[in-house]
Design a protein that fits this description.
Elements: H1 3-15, E1 33-37, H2 43-51, E2 56-60, H3 64-76, E3 82-85, E4 101-107, H4 125-134, E5 135-145, H5 148-160, E6 165-169, H6 184-191, E7 197-201
Parallel strand pairs: 1-2, 1-4, 2-3, 4-5
Antiparallel strand pairs: 5-7, 6-7
The protein binds S-adenosylmethionine.
S-adenosylmethionine binds near residues 37 and 38.
């Protein structure tokens, strides 16, 4: 990154720093949160927070230049019930506190299509184990993707790791979606007429 760009990013981040979690130790205080992993530019999670002011949300995104847009969106909306973590989610393995999430959202996670990269998929054994540690009793994973291979892999992986699957759709938008909040990627895929796959794991 060129220095001017970096400086600009630092300035933008500083302006929204009140929405950032800097230390995962802060998670020790969390109870009953809804967590989005790979929030991108934050359309989904900021709308969730806006529509559900009684709930608390945390969004994780590893790319700084991307999370800045999500942070600025939350700031513009004046949201008080959301925090952001600029980190690879695998770092949450180090957390002592467990079972503090009532919901985990995986929206259009990177498919890592090559077999040798399967471990990096956010529904691989490693991450399924992490989610078991994070989810509370009755907690659920809600996943949407455009990628059928990732979808089938995820069903198999979640079941292998002790989750049950419900509310499966292989073409979410073929029926009327009253409560669905579209992510940036979803809007793009739907505009192209592609089917959206959705599942809930519990
Ligand atoms: C394909 S984009 C989808 C963005 C958004 N969820 C949407 O649906 O529009 C996937 C996002 O997940 C982030 N991501 C992927 N793996 C991650 C990880 N291990 N930890 C945190 N973020 C991750 C990527 O940086 C990227 O922004």
């Amino acid at each position: 990154m060129r220095p001017r760009k970096k400086k600009n990013a630092e300035k933008r981040l500083a302006a929204v720093s009140h929405l950032l979690i800097y230390d995962i130790a802060e998670f020790e205080a969390f109870k009953d949160i809804e967590l989005e992993i790979g929030c991108g530019k934050g359309d989904f999670i900021t709308q969730m927070a806006l529509r559900n002011p009684e709930k608390s949300f945390v969004a994780v995104e590893k790319v700084q230049t991307v999370i800045i847009s999500a942070l600025e969106k939350a700031d513009r909306l004046g949201l008080q019930n959301i925090k952001f973590l600029n980190m690879d989610v695998s770092k949450l393995c180090d957390i002592e506190n467990s079972h503090f999430c009532s919901r985990i959202y995986l929206n259009f996670s990177d498919p890592w299509s090559h077999k040798r990269h399967a471990k990096r998929r956010l529904s691989s054994d490693f991450f399924a184990e992490l989610y078991k540690k994070l989810l509370n009793d009755g907690g659920e994973i809600h996943m949407k993707t455009d990628n059928e291979q990732l979808f089938d892999f995820s069903i198999e992986s979640f079941e292998k790791n002790g989750f049950r699957i419900k509310n499966v759709s292989r073409d979410l938008h073929s029926t009327e979606q009253k409560d669905n909040i579209m992510t940036e990627y979803e809007k793009n895929f739907v505009a192209q007429g592609l089917p959206i796959f959705r599942l809930e794991a519990f």
